[in-house]
Specification:
Blueprint: E1 7-9, H1 11-23, E2 27-35, E3 54-59, E4 62-65, E5 72-79, E6 86-95, E7 100-111, E8 122-129, E9 136-138, H2 149-169, E10 183-185, E11 190-195, E12 202-204, H3 228-234, E13 255-257, E14 262-267, E15 274-276
Parallel strand pairs: 2-9
Antiparallel strand pairs: 1-7, 2-3, 2-6, 4-5, 5-8, 6-7, 10-11, 11-12, 13-14, 14-15
């Protein structure tokens, strides 16, 4: 059967968690370390107070808490490519005062140095289970934290989510937006409408009653002009004949009469022409080429 790997909290770590729960305080974790186990596989035990043989220690890069399991958290250690020349078989998590909080075994991992020509960064993550992860806090120097891609992506998502939530609750940012509960109401002659939660349609009400409109092909309409029957009542001899006076017109029987020196004229029933009378008698006019003119 192959080697199994695990993480256990130490007796001192469990005691610290119980004390924090009782006092309403927290357990501050600050560092992680790795070791080579003295060249042998390591069986982590809760009685341990340190690694078998520590090879590298650094500030914790990040601690994240499990949203589903309140008794679990993940701790992360970053080992830069400039550090190496050793193997890793064990890992430890330390409290602020240097006490070993949790210890674990790892598959044999080589961490080469720069001289090997294959040096690279190494990120180690361990999952730790405790009585209540809410008692765990991290005390680190932010200037020494390496921002991993996952961390940056997560922080970006959190910042974006926070910004969106802040925007959604900021009334001033929506002054030019209408509330979706506002209604488009149908006035007289219209039907339809509703709130702004969906598209709305307003329709003209057609009918024969007041407050409705008749359609262009309504049978009651007669080509959109004065009906013939109505016209006949107003003609001469009709039951309601319109006189020239009613509409401010002249009676066609009135005459244009020719006065002295003119001939022609007649009633207004047709075009009329008035003509100057030329001659040699009184009441006539001589023409411009009359021989009597000197």
């Amino acid at each position: 059967m192959g080697q199994s790997y695990k993480i256990v909290t130490t007796n001192l770590g469990r005691t610290a968690v119980r004390f924090a729960l009782a006092q309403g305080t927290s357990v501050k974790l600050t560092h992680m370390a790795v070791g080579d186990g003295g060249g042998q596989d390591v069986e982590p035990m809760s009685s341990m107070t340190g690694l078998v043989r520590e090879t590298f220690r650094a500030q914790i890069n990040e601690i994240t808490f499990d949203a589903v399991h309140p008794d679990m958290f993940t701790a992360e250690l970053f080992i830069p490519q400039s550090v190496g020349g050793f193997y890793i078989r064990e890992v430890g998590l330390f409290m602020e005062d240097g006490t070993l909080f949790a210890v674990g075994s790892m598959p044999l991992t080589e961490k080469p140095d720069l001289s090997s020509g294959s040096a690279s960064d190494l990120l180690i993550k361990i999952i730790v289970r405790v009585l209540d992860a809410s008692t765990i806090s991290i005390s680190i120097d932010p200037a020494q934290v390496l921002a991993t891609r996952d961390y940056v992506d997560r922080m970006d998502r959190e910042r974006i989510r926070a910004a969106v939530e802040a925007h959604n609750t900021e009334q001033a940012a929506h002054d030019y937006l209408a509330r979706k509960t506002v209604q488009i109401k149908a006035g007289t002659g219209l039907s339809g409408g509703g709130t702004l939660e969906a598209d709305r349609t307003l329709t003209v009400k057609y009918g024969t009653a007041a407050g409705t409109a008749c359609q262009g092909n309504d049978a009651r309409l007669s080509n959109a002009r004065t009906p013939t029957a109505h016209k006949d009542t107003h003609k001469t001899g009709g039951s309601d004949a319109i006189t020239p006076t009613d509409i401010g017109a002249a009676d066609k029987t009135i005459q244009i009469k020719a006065g002295t020196g003119l001939s022609g004229g007649g009633t207004l029933e047709a075009d009329r022409t008035l003509t100057v009378k030329y001659g040699t008698a009184a009441g006539t006019a001589c023409q411009g080429n009359d021989a009597r003119l000197s």
